[in-house]
From TrEMBL:
Ranges of Low complexity composition bias in the record: 16-25
Annotated stretches, region: Disordered: 1-77, 693-721
Compositionally biased region (Acidic residues): 26-40, 64-74, 708-721
Domain PiggyBac transposable element-derived protein: 126-524
Protein's name according to its UniProt entry: PiggyBac transposable element-derived protein domain-containing protein
UniProt source species: Seminavis robusta
Listed Pfam families: DDE_Tnp_1_7
Length: 721
């Protein structure tokens, strides 16, 4: 049975019997790559050799008791059972010269690359680019400051004296401006390291003196005074660093091990999707940040990495320009399937990670052409190759372990001991349209591809002191060209600056949080340089150090024009519906009409005409999902009473409409011209009418009928509410 037929016919099946759990010796079970603690003995499988120049694949390690890819019993109608029903029958490919084995190859995507239309025009400076592209704007910083203040009052204040002195000074709640400056100090410290006394060295107000003793006079070290004291005292820096806390425990009640990072990850993926086109060539691999905390529930050990203990990120990026398109954090088996598409919950862990990235990029709904993705042998197997092609129009190439289901060792039996360098074997399954091949370099390389290109290319390899030319399968050359994208982005994040590079925290999630912000910083740099390709914008490409220095100084110089503090519970509720999940994000976009009015400000103006319409159409944005129109900036001179309510103080109108109470005040609907209707009986609406000395109102029959049964949120058109 062909793969296409099996995928189509299986949708009509109704069997719900359970299949047994695959044992440890099953040929289809994925082996554990990483373990929580370093094992006493780490065995390297002799049949999985690899050339360091061709990949950084990890050797096989003994699995711990929390086997990451052990399959659970699943229904036979699930996607996992479909790929397990595939039958494999390979035939050797003889004389593989300029031969395309698959005559049903789909047309590849040839549309626009890089930045989406209209992204580059709104920002004029690198800092504007950082806020606009990455989403690290005032809203996110306000959420971070509010969470840190909440953490101090709940867990730190109880151990202080009655004067609330901490690090020698009295505590004051962290303002948004202070959080900006704190992040600016962290970024600038990483670019100008001073290995002399820790953080204190950056806050030194006077030159340092060195006294050698023995009668010698102390020596003043000119230029040793530093810069950080101009923006913040050392005591205040230590306070903010100690209270730094992204999220409250209440957001982690769903079993998410990394709930501290989830909002930031969802924001990151939404911003990347809004900013960049999904290109033709993709790469998937793991990135990460060092972490030695034994309290980290997702810490991994890998002796072959520079940082042997770390938190892993699953990263899907562009293979040509290196921007990160999708990011998720490794959680082991992730039994709660946090952030995973419903169709993929039964897949093994690493296959689930790749497929979820494709689904999050909406490739399963794309009709613009096929794409290609490269991955290494941690994720690669023939089953995944078929699934990605059939479900997501995603052709793939990657190295593969010989114990994967679908790999036939009988057809491919090359060994380094009995084969010359440059020797290759190709085999093709014409039912599933999958090619497997082996190529001998300094070790034997195993490759699986659905490109099904049997042609050969010449490559140069270093043999002793000389470079020699060998024939190599074209699919392996394609893999090698694409696979370095993740490593390149890791190198760019790991050298010469970054929020997490010089960060030292006891809590594991703090450095991991800043590592994700570093990914945002990298995407912003790439977006800025891509925008320089438009000659009409008159911009200059910047090197990484130049861009990072500009961002750091902009953070240090930030001035907050909104004086009202924002409570932690308010800012959490204000952003609850903006990033409810990774697949559905509500982002402010440019309004389709220049005269679009803010629905929040219009609410009271409909009742009291004397409030006027000044500023109702300026800085108005439309939600990318529900179509509501509202101010995307905080209004500092508003004469509306709704902005004075304690639950909305310090929030923009866009945030008000996506808060918990605002979401109920403007109910989304699919009927009529508007995508949202006001609730005439909501307590906030009644409170506002009472303030203006107006009686309660009652909706007409048509509006009452439209509101009934439309409490859920499905609107697509603009409306004024």
């Amino acid at each position: 049975m062909s793969s296409r037929g099996s995928f189509q016919s299986s949708r009509r099946r109704t069997r719900t019997t359970q299949v047994s759990t695959v044992g440890e010796d099953s040929a289809s079970e994925e082996e554990e790559d990483l373990v929580e603690e370093p094992p006493d003995i780490i065995e390297t499988r002799p049949d999985d050799p690899w050339d360091d120049e061709m990949s950084d694949a990890m050797p096989h390690q003994q699995a711990n008791e929390e086997e990451e890819d052990e399959d659970e019993p699943v229904s036979e109608t699930t996607l996992n059972s479909l790929i397990r029903e595939l039958k494999w029958k390979y035939a050797r490919v003889e004389n593989p010269q300029n031969k395309q084995l698959d005559s049903t190859m789909q047309r590849f995507y040839d549309g626009p690359q890089g930045l989406r239309h209209g992204i580059a025009e709104p920002f004029t400076t690198p800092f504007d680019c950082f806020e606009h592209v990455s989403g690290v704007d005032r809203t996110l910083i306000a959420r971070l400051a509010a969470g840190s203040n909440d953490y101090f009052h709940r867990f730190i204040k109880i151990d202080l004296d009655r004067n609330n002195r901490w690090h020698g000074v009295r505590w004051e709640d962290i303002s948004i401006e202070e959080m900006y400056r704190f992040l600016g100090i962290m970024l600038k410290i990483s670019m100008f390291p001073v290995d002399d006394g820790g953080y204190e060295a950056y806050f030194r107000k006077e030159n340092k003196y060195i006294s050698p003793g023995g009668g010698a006079q102390p020596m003043e070290i000119y230029g040793s005074s530093d810069w950080a004291h101009q923006y913040m005292t050392l005591s205040r820096f230590k306070q903010i660093r100690g209270a730094f806390h992204p999220e409250d425990k209440s957001v982690g009640l769903g079993g998410d091990k990394c709930y501290q990072l989830r909002h930031l990850i969802n924001s990151f993926n939404a911003a990347s999707s809004r900013t960049f086109h999904v290109p033709r060539d993709l790469a998937f691999d793991e990135g990460g940040v060092g972490c030695r905390s034994r309290y980290c529930p997702v810490r991994q050990y890998n002796k072959d990495k520079p940082q042997k203990f770390r938190v892993d990120f699953f990263i899907c990026s562009c293979a040509r320009t290196y921007q990160i398109l999708h990011l998720d954090v490794y959680q082991g088996r992730n039994g709660n399937n946090v952030g995973i598409h419903d169709d993929l919950v039964d897949l093994p862990t690493t296959q689930k990670a790749v497929a979820n990235a494709a689904y999050s990029l909406k490739l399963h709904q794309s009709h613009t052409g096929a794409r290609h993705i490269s991955m290494d042998n941690r994720y690669r197997c023939p089953e995944l190759a078929v699934m990605l092609r059939e479900k997501c129009k995603l052709y793939s190439t990657g190295t593969c372990r010989t114990n994967r289901k679908g790999w036939k060792e009988a057809e491919l039996d090359l060994k380094k001991t009995n084969s010359n360098r440059g020797t290759s074997i190709l085999a093709y399954d014409d039912q599933n349209r999958v090619t497997i091949c082996q190529w001998v370099d300094s070790k034997v390389v195993n490759v699986v591809s659905t490109l099904n290109d049997a042609s050969m290319k010449n490559v140069q390899r270093q043999v002793g002191s000389n470079k020699e030319t060998f024939e190599c399968p074209a699919v392996l050359v394609e893999y090698q060209e694409d696979m370095g994208a993740i490593d390149r982005s890791d190198q760019m994040r790991g050298h010469e600056g970054g929020f997490s590079q010089k960060a030292h925290f006891k809590k594991w999630y703090k450095k991991s949080y800043l590592a994700i912000v570093d990914c945002w910083l990298l995407n912003s740099l790439i977006a800025w340089n891509l925008s320089c390709g438009d000659a009409a914008l008159h911009r200059r490409r910047l090197k990484r150090q130049q861009f990072y220095q500009y961002i750091a100084q902009s953070l240090l110089n930030f001035k907050d024009t909104v004086a009202n503090p924002v409570a932690a519970v308010v800012v959490r509720e204000a952003t609850q519906y903006q990033f409810a999940d990774g697949a559905r994000s509500r982002l402010p976009q440019k309004a389709s009409r220049a005269n679009t009015r803010c629905s929040v400000c219009r609410l009271e103006q409909q009742w009291v005409k004397s409030l006027g319409e000044k500023g109702m159409t300026s800085d108005v944005a439309t939600c990318s999902d529900c179509g509501v129109s509202a101010h995307a900036v905080v209004l500092t001179d508003s004469n509306r009473q709704i902005h004075q309510l304690h639950q909305f103080r310090g929030l923009s109108c866009f945030q008000i409409m996506h808060s918990v109470e605002g979401y109920q005040l403007w109910k989304r609907t699919t009927k009529g011209r508007n995508s949202f209707e006001p609730s005439y009986t909501h307590p906030i609406r009644l409170q506002l009418r009472q303030f203006h000395n107006l009686p309660p109102e009652r909706a007409g029959k048509r509006k009452r009928d439209n509101a009934e049964g439309n409490d859920e949120y499905f609107g697509n058109e603009d409306g004024d509410g």
